[in-house]
Amino acid sequence: MSHPKLKKFRRIVVKVGSSLLIDSAAGEVRASWLAALAADIAKLHHDGKDVLVVSSGSIALGRSRLKLPSGALKLEESQAAAAVGQIELARIWSEVLGAHGIGAGQILVTLQDTEERRRYLNARSTITKLLEWRAVPVINENDTVATNEIRYGDNDRLAARVATMTSADLLVLLSDIDGLYTAPPSANPNAKLIPIVESVTADIEAMAGAAESELSRGGMRTKIEAAKIATSAGTHMLIASGKIEHPLQAIADGGPCTWFLTPANPVTARKRWIAGSLEPKGTLTIDAGAVAALRAGKSLLPAGVIRVDGQFARGDAVVVRGPDTHEIGRGLVAYDAENADLIKGRSSSDAAQILGISGRAEMIHRDDLVVGGPRGTDSAK
Ligand code: GLU
């Protein structure tokens, strides 16, 4: 089986680990390496792709700026070190991307931001807006407020969640190793790079072992966890070495790496999840014009809604019914029940005025909508 080409993807999340970004001996950012990576990102960006960066390095950079002794940091120490390092990290990304005429937007997320539906929608709409404006979101965990119990801790899994949340079709983990090997290559000279993983089996997990490097929290194990998150939501993932200059160009040129392939595409996978696993909290009844629009693959606008039932919050799943109460589909609604009721039947600009915000125009965005039978077989692709 072959893997897809880099140029085929439309939205790519690139995760950069601390050990690549920072020279641990000097405690400085590897400036020329980063400039080369920024040139690769700019090339993809100028080819019309959406690029998102998940960058680690706040704790390591803060540690070096504050001249902290080596050794493990207590929670409040790493939180405070991150406060110092994150400012610098954001400045560096803004500079290196700015050199290519690209605006960088800093987004710091916590575990709750990606796992609670309401906050998830907020984070997602900010990221989507940045991409629409052709800026590059630069994302990290909000390490200054994250506590041990409620944090990702590693940016591999965080990057995978960001990728699935933004329906990215590719996640690239740049690492200090060029992919997954059959055994740890440092210990076993016969270890072989696995070019393609079609599904993450127990054997694959066993190969990951527990390797960890000095600076980064994630080893191969968190990368395999990331692969599970990404590929089950329709995002392909690859692990490649970031130790070389122009690592993304190297991937495009067919350099060594491990691909983790997904059988689905992000939107279909997301829709399957909406159709199958959510408990609807309410019902929107829509007019015949809206039924036709939905069947043609469009979003549901407030104007097409004639009745709102149930108690739901923004982001909850609702059932959509036609004028004859026949189920048309299911989706994640962008307004709570009270606001949905206030703006039903109104144009999107009236709706914005009524609510006093220029919010989202759609009642349910088409990516959040499954049109079909009762269990939502997707006919609106
Ligand atoms: N969020 C952490 C930082 O920026 C890094 C986590 C990781 O290394 O994966 O320092």
Would you kindly provide a written description of the structure presented here, covering whatever features stand out?
The protein has 14 helices and 15 strands. The chain has 381 residues and is of the alpha/beta class. It folds into 2 domains: 259 residues, 3-Layer(aba) Sandwich (Carbamate kinase); 101 residues, Archaeosine Trna-guanine Transglycosylase, Chain: A, domain 4. The chain has an 8-stranded mixed beta sheet with strand order 5-6-4-1-7-9-10-8, sandwiched between helices. It has a 5-stranded mixed beta sheet with strand order 12-11-13-14-15, sandwiched between helices. Helix 3 packs across helix 4 and helix 7 packs parallel to helix 9. The chain starts with 10 loop residues before the first strand and ends in a 10-residue tail after the last strand. The structure holds glutamic acid. The site of glutamic acid has 15 residues, from helix 3 and strand 6. Glutamic acid binds next to helix 3 and strand 6.
Entry keywords:
binds glutamic acid, eight-stranded mixed β-sheet, Archaeosine Trna-guanine Transglycosylase, Chain: A, domain 4, about 20% strand, Carbamate kinase, disordered C terminus, about 375 residues, alpha/beta, five-stranded mixed β-sheet, globular, 2 domains, 15 strands
